[in-house]
Amino acid sequence: MAGKRPTVRHRRLCAELQRLRERAEVPSEVVLKETGWSRARMSRKENAEVTISPSEVRDLCRIYGADVDRTEWLTDLSRRIRAQGWWVAYSDVLTDAMADYVELECEAAEIRYFEVDVIPGLLQTERYARELFAARDASVPSAALQRRAEMRLRRQDRISSGGVVLSAVIDETAIHRAFHSPAGEQQIDHLLAVSEQSNVTVQLLPLDAGLHAASGAPFTWLGFPQFYQPVVWLDSLAGSLWIEEDSQVCDYDSTHARLTDIALNPSESKRLIRRLMKEAQ
């Protein structure tokens, strides 16, 4: 594994093990004695610079006093750290940051969106996604735009299969902008259709809601099964940023809850979308 970029799964495994050690207040000297590692090797293991085997994970869980369920979960995770996901086939159009996001998205049990002026990625049509990519970077060849759009559709498989629960709060602005796109009508029809799925909740934040806790600040919250801590993904022209600090992630969770409170409920949202669609025709 040395010299290769570790997967998100690998990095999160190591972060969880380090968190266990710190919470158990186990001195590094104890770990070195129990494992026979050098201090440099321990550092490389904790920083995901080299692989960590299932047996090593079990040993560390024992040293840190982890319970049976957490031990089994972390051990299973260690068996899968080298596994490559389907998105590797799109590495020609995938940045490292986006590969990290897709890997976590595929692990998530729940996704919460707040979007300001675009339809959330997992609710986009291929044509809308392609137009959005082209608007962001006019220099991208059409073949690459198509590949990016295809990958976005592939990511939606978990939505259609019910493998993830999605809650999206979308500013009304995004609907108006969509209608000014050639792909707009098809995109809105798709949004309404997907919102009928039992695992998808779409709420529109009307313009008359005024300023709010997330004004001008779209975000994506990812929640995971078992012991993983939730994370928040922020995307901008300057790059992408992960929020992993528990208190900050909780702030975003609370903010999303406040947005759902002031947004229209799902039924009201559909009625407004249909009315806006009729007015735009």
Strand adjacency order, main sheet:
3-2-1-4-5-6
> Which segments are poorly predicted (pLDDT under 50) over 5 or more consecutive residues?
none
- Average pLDDT taken over every residue: 92
Q: What Rg do the Cα atoms give? A: 21 Å
What pattern of helices and strands is seen along the backbone? HHHHHHEHHHEHHEEEEHH
- Total strands: 6
Q: Sketch the major β-sheet.
A: 6 strands, mixed
Strand content: 5-15%
Shape: elongated
Topology:
Blueprint: H1 8-24, H2 28-35, H3 39-46, H4 54-64, H5 68-79, H6 96-107, E1 110-115, H7 126-136, H8 142-155, H9 157-160, E2 165-171, H10 172-179, H11 184-194, E3 200-205, E4 219-223, E5 231-236, E6 239-243, H12 246-262, H13 266-280
Parallel strand pairs: 1-2, 2-3
Antiparallel strand pairs: 1-4, 4-5, 5-6
Tell me about this structure.
This protein has a six-stranded mixed beta sheet with strand order 3-2-1-4-5-6, sandwiched between helices. The chain is built from 13 helices and six strands. 29% of the residues are buried. It has helices spanning 8-24, 28-35, 39-46, 54-64, 68-79, 96-107, 126-136, 142-155, 157-160, 172-179, 184-194, 246-262, 266-280; strands at 110-115, 165-171, 200-205, 219-223, 231-236, 239-243. The protein is elongated. The mean pLDDT is 92. It is an alpha/beta fold and 281 residues long. The chain starts with 7 loop residues before the first helix and ends with a helix. A hairpin with a 2-residue loop joins strand 5 and strand 6 (239-243).
